[in-house]
Amino acid sequence: MHPSHHARTKPDAPAYIMANSGETVTFKQLDDRSNQIAHLFRELGLNPGDTIAIFAENSPRYFEIAWAAQRSGLYYVCISSRLTAPEVEYIVSDSGSRILIASAGLAPVAREANAITELEAYWSIDGDIEGFASLEKLRDSKPTTPISDEMHGTDMLYSSGTTGRPKGIRPAFVPDTPIDEPNVLMALAKALARAEDDSIYLSPAPLYHAAPLRWCMTFTRFGSTLIIMEKFDPEKFLALVEKYKVTHSQLVPTMFVKMLKLPKDVREKYDVSSLECAIHAAAPCPVPVKEQMIEWWGPVIEEYYAGSEGNGMTWIGSKDWLAHKGSVGKPVHGQLHICDDEGNELPVGEAGTIYYSGTTPPSYHNDPEKTAGARNPKHTEWSTLGDVGRVDEDGFLYLTDRKAFMIISGGVNIYPQEAENVLITHPKVADVAVIGVPNEEFGEEVKAVVQLQPGIAASKEVEEELLEFCRARLAKIKCPKSVDFDPELPRHPTGKLYKRLVRDRYWGKHDSTIV
Description:
alpha/beta, Rossmann fold, Luciferase, domain 3, 4 domains, 9-stranded mixed sheet, 17 helices, AMP-bd_C_sf, AMP-binding_CS
């Protein structure tokens, strides 16, 4: 399936609707405009295997560009709208992008990026940017028929950069692949998320991130209608579910937390009974949070564990999760292995590095060292994202934490996620990061950095309240020894916490990069 098919069979059906503006783009309009932009790409001299960069907020033009690149055999690099000009320049240069397409809302950074890069073209959407040509004006003069050499292009996405500069994930280019070629995510969306042509899919996250981009485009392949939020707001999300009778969505745990902390009367005034499948991923979900979501929305909560690299995936539905609380499921793509630092497979129940076999290991663009580091020392065809976990006797995977964030205090391994999962459920806590900080005697000690709910003032009394809350629920060694307060923790819009930035404050480092 491909949107071009739906343009023929149901041309006037909405491919997507923007939540705030209400702008609707039909399948015919999406097909016509993506064809026009594909002609622009060829006119510029872009050939299959070349690369373009998109630096934009959530916009009705986003998918027109992405589908144009997809049907032109191009790589499309989706750049975070939160970046500075030097960070944009790094990704544009590293990826080998030949053009930069930016939204007018990002004009100040886009102009700076223009000044420090030398690309073949700079195009703007949703308004004018000095030094950029209007893509809409260029597009409208082109034919709406397909280009003569259509073939399958794909995204090239960059890691979130929580441990340094981001690295591009560039799949191998296969010439002459049809634009409607099925893929693994389509099969999983059909079998596990029950995607259909009449599904209504609500996307609350930035489209430059892997999961929102890929899942949205996958549902479009099925002929579903997308509802695109320009920015997540917890009450607005619930209102949209009711308004459009949304059947599917994908969220991150921080969104669950924000909705659960709405006043009870606000939560209960919206009808969410149309939801058939609410998927969450990208970050660990505390058990109490997920219990409350299942109680509220019913057994429609689905979870997966995977990465932009696409080297493996687990999946778990509500029924299985209630029987295996805290699990992220069983493998649905690839085979799972838990290994020690030497690459040896560990027995059931023991925690170690998570590897997948039977899939294509990730290849990080221009970084052979990171590519090699993702391989198992003894089984080089096995690959990892660097996460730590364990598998129970029934084959369900439980994530422990990122290996890089494990705290070693007096020789004892402590995984901060456990304390984070407890503290986030406290009514005064809006967000939390648990980290290891220097300790002369033990090497490291556990500290919580907390963002309080609006209206709650930081104080010694609140600190002690949070420490006691944690001690009542976890072994003492796992609990923070102290709490610091931060007005706003550095969290990516997709839900990922930039824990390195928080940790570096206490270790005297200042070279972290947010992307």
